[in-house]
Amino acid sequence: DSITEGWEGTSFGKLPRPHRNWKKNEDQEIRNIFESHFVKGRWSKPPLTLGMSGDQTQHVIWRLQHGEFPSSSSRNHPIMAVVLIGTNNLGNGMLPEPTLEGIETVCRTILKQGVEHIWLSDVLPRYDTFRVQRLCPPRCHKDGTPFSSFMPAIDRVNAALPKLADRLNMEFPSSHIAISACGHIFRPQNDTIMPDQLHPNANGYRLWAKCLSEHLTNHLKTTSSPPQ
């Protein structure tokens, strides 16, 4: 989605609109952060960033099924996919359970294309409460009041991700699916790293890159078939 595309410093292929509150040249700074953590000296080929602003799980599934992902015949070594998706499903009113089903289908689609490693990112916190659809039922607290933020739904999705990873690891024993839980970086709300309450800025991407990089490094130390 747009958070993944943000690694390229873009939104819909262009500079993000002013409401994201990025500073001048922040797009280049974010690209430099990505380069330093995930490109230079790390892999035999540069990572492929497939984020697209506005995407929900069903859009990613369609793209994966229609040639967006490199075919297995073009690969001669194990590869890793880092998956972050779901916030736009929740943001457009979808409940946590079908959102989770969509995330699972994204992972299954990738695994069926021969990917050996998936790092499944938790859905990042978001604080743009003006977008919340206050409908109860079905978006209710236990006391019967409607959700007033996205966080209850995000927490419900994230709490289910470890069991999802366990199921996929059992079904695809030659692959490795793990959770990259870096969302805590963006708690509590902090305008210095997420100024529009939804998208990280360079400060946020720097902290997120450090967390992801640490997870990847630890994983590579333990796997018998590391991606290249």
Structure explained in plain terms:
The chain has seven helices and three strands; from the N terminus they run H-H-H-E-H-H-E-H-E-H. It has a three-stranded parallel beta sheet, with helices on both faces. With 228 residues, the protein is mostly helical. The relative contact order is 0.16. The mean pLDDT is 91. 39% of the residues lie in helices and 6% in strands. It is globular, with a radius of gyration of 17 Å. The two termini are 25 Å apart.
Helices and strands in order, then pairings?
Layout: H1 2-5, H2 26-38, H3 57-65, E1 80-83, H4 87-91, H5 96-111, E2 117-121, H6 151-171, E3 176-180, H7 202-222
Parallel strand pairs: 1-2, 2-3
Spatial shape: globular
Assign the structural class, choosing from mainly alpha, mainly beta, alpha/beta, alpha+beta, or little secondary structure: mainly alpha
Helix/strand order: HHHEHHEHEH
Which stretches of 5+ consecutive residues score pLDDT under 50?
none
Mean of all residue-level pLDDT scores = 91
The largest sheet, given as strand count, sense and whether it forms a barrel, is:
3 strands, parallel
Rg, please? 17 Å
Distance between the termini: 25 Å
Strand order of the largest sheet: 1-2-3
Number of helices: 7
How helical, in percent, are the residues?
25-40%
Q: What amount of the residues lies in strands? A: 5-15%
The beta-strand count equals 3
Compact summary:
The chain is mainly alpha-helical and 228 residues long. It has helices at residues 2-5, 26-38, 57-65, 87-91, 96-111, 151-171, 202-222; strands at 80-83, 117-121, 176-180.
